[in-house]
Specification:
Length: 64
């Protein structure tokens, strides 16, 4: 994911050729990251370089 705003599964990049596949893939990896306590990097984010992914009330959040 390029920025922390893209943690929302339906927020994809404008140049994505397979947006529905990307949403499915993001749901898979975000769930794994939240369950595993992963620290993820955001290559195009200016404010938060690395953060943990958490899932609360069915939504994914960035935890700095």
């Amino acid at each position: 994911m390029p920025t922390v705003h893209h943690v929302t599964p339906t927020w994809i990049t404008a140049f994505d050729l397979y947006p529905l596949q990307s949403v499915d893939s993001k749901l898979h990896w975000l769930t794994a990251a939240a369950r595993g306590g992963w620290v993820c990097g955001f290559g195009h984010e200016t404010g938060v370089a690395f953060a943990a992914i958490r899932q609360r009330d069915g939504r994914f959040q960035v935890s700095v």
